[in-house]
Specification:
Shape: elongated
Number of domains: 2
Radius of gyration: 21 Å
Number of helices: 4
Number of strands: 0
């Protein structure tokens, strides 16, 4: 079976889930919240997550700024309709 780009390999996923189960067991908990995952990841994984978060945020800000510059009248009309 060939690997699909952008998807985790089953072996990698299994290793990650095994590691996560060990960490949760060591901490005597079954609770996993998305904001606690950073505690269980390695430094390179944290850097990738940070880069992705910053990249998405900057991309959205650039897109919204370009939209506001390109279509200022339409945005003002939309704002007028929402506020009334």
């Amino acid at each position: 079976m060939s690997h699909v780009p952008g998807r985790a390999r089953p072996v990698t996923s299994g290793l990650w889930l095994s590691h996560l189960a060990q960490v949760l067991t060591r901490n005597h908990t079954r609770d996993l919240a998305w904001w606690t995952i950073a505690r269980y990841t390695t430094a390179p994984a944290r850097r990738r997550l940070l880069r992705a978060t910053v990249g998405i945020t900057v991309g959205l800000l650039v897109a919204l700024t370009r939209l506001a510059i390109t279509y200022p009248c339409q945005l003002q009309d939309l704002d007028d309709r929402v506020s009334s």
